[in-house]
Amino acid sequence: MARRTAALSIRIDPELKKELERLAEADRRSVASLVEKVLADFVESKKQQQ
Hints:
The chain is an all-alpha fold. The protein contains two helices and no strands.
């Protein structure tokens, strides 16, 4: 069964977007997938600090 996801729309600096696209391509994933991983890692690290 597929996992349900929620949409999140943000605005970012165009240069940041270019860097995200470059990093995502190097990691062979989409920008959305890269951003989801970065956010999940950040949240997990914050949980561990508490």
